[in-house]
């Protein structure tokens, strides 16, 4: 089995559905453990994003368009399926689509997100105190919302809803809600006891919003009632560390939160009961210039994995084992702090950005085999051509 396409084509020969599923998941495990920097896919840089990428997002429909927001506020899209190749065995040149200069933000991009149902629309937030909704076909913004404070994080609801809202966190007690239909923002919720640094909508209920606070608390809100939060809860260890990110597992069974103390807390998504905590090694730290951490969850294999920045490395950390220090696989390739990670499920690829101004594509080793002619050339370069008489 040399590639994911071959396995998908042939896996029906392996007996029952449960057996096929187990074989498939184990195969994905092997692919994820063999990730290495791709020689085929090199994400191009232009003058607009040469300062480095602070935030990324992969479109949820085709897993094809990589949205990039730079430290300077520039927005660009890389088409991972549209590329040219000068010679076999050489890296491909991906199509790079920059935004119009008049539409770009003024400062660092804190969040990028595609609209969950349409790859022609996306939203961005910035430290320039604005949130913008974009037309991806024209690469210009169509709506702009200005706030009194820098925007730390946003999340556009992905639940089934005719009118999904955008939640905005600004390290204040106010939680802004944007209604794209009316083109206006509503100051709808207020967390009196804490400042909000992270937001995440429920996967299944468009009215339920989770927020992470600056003192380690997590609150659940029903946006139909703006009086107060439905419930506030925190980890059993009572860490007073800002909750920088909240994510739900693809299955919807787990909620995972991450705070500045480098701890991932795993919760039961239905009962909202804390299950266990997983900590990165003490020497791993969050990139100091970022107020939030962009990590993703992967459950394609047998384990639930967090794919997250870990100082200059990318960490693949098991979360569902219940062990405080479970299996950890590190990807080495960046030279400075990693800022964001995305996972491309169709190819089991990880894409990471860093303040070293590199965007790396990590592919399974079996997908990175070079053409036979190129391998022969490389082997010839490394052969010992000296004879005993020459020596």
UniProtKB/TrEMBL annotation:
Gene3D superfamilies: YVTN repeat-like/Quinoprotein amine dehydrogenase. Residues 367-385 have a biased composition (Basic and acidic residues). GO terms for biological process: proteasome-mediated ubiquitin-dependent protein catabolic process; protein polyubiquitination; transcription-coupled nucleotide-excision repair. InterPro entries: Rad28/ERCC8/Ckn1/ATCSA-1, WD40/YVTN_repeat-like_dom_sf, WD40_repeat_dom_sf, WD40_rpt. PROSITE patterns: WD_REPEATS_2. It comes from the Eukaryota. Pfam families: WD40. Residues 367-391 are annotated as: Disordered. One of its GO terms (cellular component) is nucleotide-excision repair complex. WD repeats lie at residues 102-135, 189-231, 331-363. Keywords: WD repeat. This is DNA excision repair protein ERCC-8.
């Amino acid at each position: 089995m040399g590639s994911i396409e071959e396995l998908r084509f042939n896996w029906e020969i392996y007996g029952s559905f449960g057996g096929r599923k187990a074989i498939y998941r184990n195969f994905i495990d092997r692919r994820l453990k063999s990730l290495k920097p791709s020689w085929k896919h090199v994400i191009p840089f232009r003058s607009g994003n040469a300062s480095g990428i602070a935030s990324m997002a992969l479109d949820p429909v085709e897993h094809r368009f990589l949205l990039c927001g730079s430290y300077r506020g520039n927005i660009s899209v890389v088409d991972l399926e549209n590329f040219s190749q000068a010679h076999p065995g050489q890296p491909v040149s991906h199509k790079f689509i920059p935004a119009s200069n008049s539409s770009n933000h003024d400062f660092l991009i804190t969040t990028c997100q595609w609209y969950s149902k349409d790859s022609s629309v996306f939203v961005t937030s910035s430290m320039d105190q604005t949130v913008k909704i974009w037309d991806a076909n024209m690469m210009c913004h169509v709506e702009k919302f200005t706030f009194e404070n820098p925007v730390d994080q946003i999340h556009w609801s992905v639940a089934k809803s005719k009118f999904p809202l955008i939640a905005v966190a600004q390290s204040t007690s106010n939680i802004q809600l944007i209604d794209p239909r009316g083109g206006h923002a509503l100051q709808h919720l207020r967390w009196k006891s804490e400042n909000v640094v992270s937001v995440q909508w429920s996967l299944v209920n468009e009215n339920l919003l989770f927020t992470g606070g600056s003192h380690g608390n997590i609150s659940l809100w029903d946006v139909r009632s703006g009086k107060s939060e439905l419930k506030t809860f925190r980890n059993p260890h009572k860490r007073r560390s800002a909750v920088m990110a909240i994510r739900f597992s693809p299955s919807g069974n787990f909620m995972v939160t991450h705070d500045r103390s480098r701890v991932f807390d795993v919760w039961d998504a239905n009962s909202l009961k804390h299950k266990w905590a997983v900590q990165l090694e003490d020497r791993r730290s969050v990139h100091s210039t970022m107020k939030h951490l962009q990590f993703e969850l992967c459950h394609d294999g047998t384990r639930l994995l967090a794919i997250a920045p870990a100082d200059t490395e990318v960490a693949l950390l098991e979360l569902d084992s219940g062990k405080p220090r479970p299996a950890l696989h590190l990807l080495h390739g960046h030279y400075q702090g990693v800022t964001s990670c995305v996972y491309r499920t169709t190819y089991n690829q990880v894409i990471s950005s860093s303040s070293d101004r590199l965007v790396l594509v990590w592919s399974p080793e079996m997908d990175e085999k070079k053409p036979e002619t190129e391998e022969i050339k490389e082997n010839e370069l490394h052969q010992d051509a000296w004879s005993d008489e020459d020596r």
